[in-house]
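A quick aside before the break. I want you to see a complete sequence-to-structure record at least once, exactly as it would be stored in a machine-readable document. Don't worry about memorizing anything.
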Amino acid sequence: MQANRLHAAIKNLTVALRETETALEELRSDSDPLAVHIFVARRQYRNVPDTKGGKRSEIAARLSWEKACSLGFRGSLGEWARLLGAAPKR
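That is the input. The structure line, written in tokens, reads:
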């Protein structure tokens, strides 16, 4: 009788694992391109070696903002720069 219970439990576990894997695949396929772009752009913005006047980071922010606008971002360039983590100008 114990063997039957163990076999049934393993069968139930296998079914649950398949359902979980299916759900994970659905989540991965439905990723939001704007959210992915924000994540990548923030990391790239932090790692940009900047010039003395800050021109390189401004260009990086503008280019990534243009891409974000094409993906559906509706804010201004200043809002995008704040989202990336830019320090306010003095």
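Two observations worth writing down. DSSP finds four helices and no strands in the chain. The chain has two domains: 1-30, 33-84. We'll return to this after the break.
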